[in-house]
From TrEMBL:
The lineage of its organism: Bacteria, Pseudomonadati, Pseudomonadota, Gammaproteobacteria, Oceanospirillales. This is Guanine deaminase. It catalyses: guanine + H2O + H(+) = xanthine + NH4(+). One of its GO terms (molecular function) is zinc ion binding. Keywords: Hydrolase, Metal-binding, Zinc. Residues 68-428 form the Amidohydrolase-related domain. It is an enzyme of class 3 (hydrolase). GO terms for cellular component: cytosol.
Length: 432
């Protein structure tokens, strides 16, 4: 086994600022040191304290203009939508029919799927994202291709085959039975293989029959620790359609609830137009919401109510929702999140933002023992930000007072250029 050390400014969250207050929610080392043994964090602290503990032959990488953070966690993204990012002019239901479904049709071809998966993962790593909860397409091979590509970099990734048996083109539909069977086969092949996990992935209520949702719930309850990943209450027309399609249900979430799809490992993208009883039920079941600001603005869905989620103690993580979202960058996603909260006359603090993009995401995915911060014994997934990445970032950071303001500047001006290097399980997976 080999030790490696990084000397730089370091920041990470240790709790939710909502629960313990901002000051108690993070640790910051202005001249810090991170020591990694194999794939895990061995020590974190002040360089002055940790330098003397190192053998003289231990490699120390010094980044005087760096800021180390945990790797970012994207709790909702579609890898097959990589090449249709920035599709013009539509809201959800028309956007799906016009752009998304034709694009996803290409993923019956495994060679195509693997090509996109490789480029998708490179893009995530360029942006400092080391873990993501990812939609495949309806095609089983799309998920094989994604996991095979993830294995190459030893990334902690979660993915699933889309289940959809109605209200979509024939070339993109499965049946309740084939979706159950193929999902089960994928679970048996990939779930908990290395750092990989499986998510049962019904696209959203309108594209699944009652029978399909029922089988999805049955499958979820056959395993202890498989995920469930879907969309919830994103767009007003979508919500009205769900009411029509499921007249027996009390509300949108209740469609999933009645099919036993709410669990501690269930993640619902968006959750914009929810009533109090839906927040309450999400809390009760330990389910999480993925907040996807760039998507919610770009396809005109609405403003996520973070205060409501907090009030009801619902777990929240950040999602880019590419290709409805417009950036792979978690920094840019937090920039838009700040504006979404501003439009509701509230503030999103930089420490809360960092929390949502790291430890909060890990908690939403029940992975906080493994990833999400730089605590000793956790997996060495981290990013080195570059304070000198661009002239503007450099001059603006030079004038910022304290780490909280610096972090906010990174989140406002930063993007892939600010990511100097990305590490997964102690190995460098991206370097600028
Ligand atoms: N709802 C159902 N499918 C999708 C999708 O692909 N993207 C988004 N943003 N919402 C959806
Ligand atoms: Fe989505």
């Amino acid at each position: 086994s080999q030790l490696k050390a990084w000397r730089s400014a370091i920041i990470h969250c240790i709790a939710d600022p909502k629960e313990v207050g901002v000051e108690q929610a993070y640790e910051y080392f202005e001249d810090g040191m991170l020591i990694v043994k194999d794939d895990k964090i061995q020590a974190i602290g002040h360089a002055a304290d940790l330098l003397p503990t190192l053998d003289c032959d231990t490699l120390v990488e010094h980044h005087p203009d760096g800021l180390i953070t945990p790797g970012f966690i994207d709790t909702h993204i579609h890898y097959p939508q990589t090449d249709m990012i920035g599709s013009y002019g539509e809201q959800l239901l028309t956007w799906l029919n016009t752009y998304t479904f034709p694009e996803e049709g290409k993923f019956h071809d495994k060679t195509h799927a693997r090509d996109v998966a490789d480029r998708f993962l490179k893009e995530l790593l360029r942006n400092g994202t080391t873990t993501a909860l990812v939609f495949g397409t309806v095609h089983k091979v799309s998920v094989d291709a994604f996991f095979e590509a993830s294995e190459v970099h030893n990334l902690r990734m979660i993915c699933g085959k889309v289940m959809m048996d109605r209200n979509a083109p024939d070339f993109l539909t499965d049946t309740p039975e084939t979706s159950y069977q193929e999902s089960k086969e994928l679970i048996d092949t990939w779930h908990n293989k290395g750092r990989l996990h499986y998510a049962i992935t019904p696209r959203f209520a309108p594209t699944s029959s009652d029978e399909q949702l029922k089988l999805a719930g049955k499958l979820l309850n056959e395993y202890d620790d498989v995920y469930m990943h879907t969309h919830l209450s994103e767009n007003k027309d979508e919500c009205a359609w769900v009411q029509d399609l499921f007249p027996e249900s009390k509300n949108y979430l209740d469609v999933y609830d009645q099919h036993k799809l709410l669990s501690e490992r269930s993640v619902f993208a968006h959750g914009i137009h929810l009533c109090d009883s839906e927040y309450h039920r999400l809390h009760e079941t330990g389910s999480a919401i993925a907040f996807c600001p760039t998507s919610n603005l770009f396809i005109g869905s609405g403003l996520f109510k973070l205060n409501k989620a907090e009030e009801h103690k619902v777990n929240v993580g950040m999602g880019t929702d590419v290709g409805g979202g417009t950036s792979f960058s978690m920094l840019q996603t937090l920039n838009e999140a700040y504006k979404v909260i501003q439009l509701q006359n509230e503030n999103l603090s930089p420490i809360k933002s960092l929390y949502l993009a790291t430890l909060g995401g890990a908690k939403a995915l029940r992975l906080e023992d493994k990833i999400g911060n730089l605590a000793v014994g956790t997996e060495a997934d981290f990013v080195i930000l570059d304070k000198k990445a661009t002239p503007l970032l450099s001059s603006r950071l030079a004038l910022s007072k304290g780490i909280e303001e610096s972090l906010f500047v990174f989140m406002t001006l930063g993007d892939d250029r600010a990511i100097k290097a990305t590490y997964s399980a102690g190995q460098c997976v991206h370097q600028r």
